[in-house]
Design goal:
The chain has one domain: Cytochrome P450 (Cytochrome p450, Orthogonal Bundle), CATH 1.10.630. The protein is of the alpha+beta class and about 400 residues long. A five-stranded mixed sheet has the order 1-2-8-5-3, with helices on one face. About 45% of the residues are buried. It is built from 15 helices and ten strands.
């Protein structure tokens, strides 16, 4: 076992190189080459670990000796991400993303049947219709357009609203509040206020659906389970925020990446059979869950990679570096849409906490990317690439806006 008493803790590398919007922070890449399991200094004085190697990250995410419970973990960020309940409290009822089995299992089991591959495929015709309608509106408005507002954000927002039973007429409200929650430039107080406003809105919706259930996921949870209103509200909050925020940023950032890689885009346009592998490669290459999420805490002493992780120490996954580990992916810094092993990425996590909605996200991206580039074969950036504003400070990476244009047909 390596002596770790002389290790000098690193600080979390977060700064990306200017002009390299798709590359991980170079500090993460250097750390992976130097020491894929390294001591990490946290803002509150805690000293834990930073993982930048693929095999180590996959092992830890699947190991039940590492807990997701928030009151046992330290945040590597100056402003911790907010959630229902206080930062030092146990998980709020229904907020299953930060629970361990068996509590996590109880909630996950109630939801899994609504997110199976088969159930998601039944949604494909409606998702295709939503995509087509948004592209029709974008074409009718004419170039230029902000792809985020015209396409990338409305598509997953409409889908998750219909799935949950949330009125899409209220989308501006929940999208605005979500941005406040996930942007780390906002204060803790601002983020908590926005989260509380979202929770209040959804609590009212839960009460309405309990009185008048409909044919949607939230109504089915009300009628088919013994969940109370607080649990239902927190589940709806988690699914609503995650259901549109992540996919919207993949659609926009993925489009940006393809426009900046014309050879790969030409291959994508020419070969529809490449769609599935292209989605997986974009997920790997971009890894939008980027600010030290997920992280875990050891519940007992664990030896990994010749290092001793002691009980109570927090372990942070540097997923942008993990998904470009040359020990796992050949030529990892290249975007190769035909990459055969791209699906081995950890962009959706791994283990019991692997993303519940991953199949829905995949379908939205498969349909969205293909339809976008078929409808607008001359699509291109409307501004120099360095003028595209990046979401460096948000928990979910992407672009705030993506100005595009095209030739009218």
């Amino acid at each position: 076992m390596t002596d770790q008493t002389s290790d000098t803790p690193v600080t979390l590398p977060m700064r990306r190189d200017p002009g390299c919007p798709f590359a991980p922070p170079p500090g993460l890449t250097r750390q992976r080459a130097d020491q894929p399991l390294a001591r990490l200094a946290f803002p509150d004085g805690h000293v834990g670990w930073l993982v930048t190697g693929y095999d180590l990250a996959r092992t830890i995410l699947a190991d039940p000796r590492f807990t997701a419970r928030p009151e046992l973990r330290h945040s590597p960020l100056p402003r911790p991400n907010v959630r229902p309940g206080g930062k030092d409290e146990s998980p709020a009822p229904g907020w299953f993303a930060v629970m361990d089995p068996p509590e996590h299992t109880r909630y996950r089991r109630l939801l899994t049947g609504h997110f199976t591959v088969r159930r998601m495929r039944h949604l494909e015709p409606r998702i295709t219709q939503i995509v087509t309608e948004q592209l029709d509106a974008m074409a009718a408005a004419g170039p230029p357009a902000d792809l985020v507002q015209a396409f990338a954000l409305p598509v997953p927002s409409l889908v998750i609203c219909e799935l949950l039973g949330v009125p899409y007429d209220d989308h501006a409200f929940f999208q605005e509040q979500t941005v406040v929650v996930v942007d780390m430039d906002n204060s803790q107080a601002q983020a908590l206020t926005a989260l509380g406003d979202l929770a209040g809105y959804l609590a009212d919706l839960v009460r309405h659906k309990r009185a008048t259930p409909a044919d949607d996921l939230l109504s089915h949870l009300i009628t088919e389970s013994d969940l109370n209103d607080e649990e239902l509200t927190n589940i709806a909050l988690l699914l609503l925020v995650a259901g549109h925020e992540t996919t919207a940023n993949m659609l926009a950032l993925g489009t940006f990446a393809l426009l900046r890689n014309p050879g790969q885009l030409d291959a994508f346009r020419a070969d529809a059979s490449m769609t599935d592998s292209a989605v997986e490669e974009l997920l790997r290459y971009l890894t939008i869950i980027h600010l030290a999420v997920p992280n875990r805490a050891a519940t007992e002493d664990v030896e990994l990679g010749g290092r001793l992780i002691r009980r109570g120490e927090t372990v942070v996954m540097g997923l942008p570096a993990v998904n470009r580990d040359p020990a796992r992916f050949a030529d990892p810094d290249a975007l190769r849409l035909d990459r055969a092993d791209a699906r081995q990425h950890l962009a959706f996590g791994h283990g019991v906490h692997q993303c519940l909605g991953q199949q829905l996200a995949r379908i939205e991206m498969r349909i969205g990317y293909r339809a976008l580039f078929e409808r607008f074969p001359t699509l291109r950036l409307a501004v120099p690439p360095e003028e595209v504003p990046l979401r460096d400070s948000a928990m979910v990476y992407g672009v705030w806006r993506l100005p595009v244009t095209w030739e009218r047909s």
